[in-house]
Amino acid sequence: MQAPATVPFRTALLYWFKLGFISFGGPAGQIALMHAELVERRRWISEQRFLHALNYCMLLPGPEATQLAVYIGWLLHRTWGGILAGLLFILPSLVLLTGLSWVYLAWGHLPLIAGIMAGIKPAVVAIVIAAAWRIGTRTLRNGVLVAIAILAFLAIAVLDIPFPLIVLGAALAGLAGGRIWPQRFQPGGGHPAGRARAGPAVIDDDTPTPAHARFSLGGLLRVCFTGIGLALGAWLLLAAVYGVNGTLARMGWFFTKAALMSFGGAYAVLPYVVQGAVEQYGWLTAAQMIDGLALGETTPGPLIMIVAYVGFVGGWTHAPFGPEASVLGGIAGACVASLFTFLPSFVFILAGGPLVESGRGNVRLTAPLSAISAAVVGVVASLAVFFGQHVFLAGGQVRWQAVAIATIASLALLRYRVGPITLIAACALAGIVLSYWHA
User: Fold this and answer.
1) What family does this chain come from, according to its entry (predicted)?
2) Is there a contact between 144 and 342 (Cβ–Cβ < 8 Å)?
């Protein structure tokens, strides 16, 4: 079977928009969705090229699933393809979470949230377990990479070593290993024998780097200056109109810092967001932050989109446009928080992508990324343990209903290949039924 020569731009845009509505399950679930659709079914990109891009995104601060969408969109359709892929991927979650935040503040606590979350939380544990298994089977190709994954798990779960240090350690191990045992750090992927019938991909293992994706110093500087100019210009506008110490200007600066510190996904940066938004600036209370996390778990898209909720509540309560326009203030806060959180990710991909493409096939350059990918398997496994402790245990007692839901969900994902959207809907329904059953 021959791959299509090109992917129509409109077809790609429709896919990224659809993905934004069905991308439940956090970054692991979102990456799994993209892999199943783009690598296995549509054959827009090969396994090896997909993993090469993913390894780079894992190295960066920010939401790796969003960055991966930008990277693949950029490879397929140049700069605007990457920009629109990222925007369409995050737009549904921004709109949905902003609407839920408005309902939450205007009419109080949603009565079904507790029941829904009782079902969704075990499903999230199952999705993370399945993601660790699937990524591990693709990534851990030899004993050296398995050892890196185990060490990463122990480092974060037992020794509580910060994620950036784990990434740095894995990169150094890969850098040294690429020189000593280059065969152990060869990039994985390719066309497995069992999937030969899938045929070639639009961007295949041996497809030359597109002209627009080749590195040039001028292109690097142009993207960097454009991104910095947009961020600086937006912040100066907010500071000029609403004051340097105004709520919106403070949000812009705060969420820029949060974006640059978000190694390891949303849960790694949430403590920093809580400390600043709750304790330092008082944009919302601790109880509101917990409720916002629950809302974030029930919406598609990157979990770091919780910043839109934080921005909405901060804009609502601090009312930069006056108390009579609290809704408008909330929408402005959500947009400002989202802009300054996600803009660095677009710059990282559009500026660094050509460098990553130029290093493809050079094991000395790809070995650190292979080692980081192995370490991420251990980190994802530790996340499953962390979630499990909070979901399955309460006051020293085991929540057997949650254990049962997670077990059935894991079996559905790994054995029967049930889609994440179907799984989450079924688990949410089970949570509602069980909550009313014991009410």
Assistant:
1) Belongs to the chromate ion transporter (CHR) (TC 2.A.51) family.
2) no
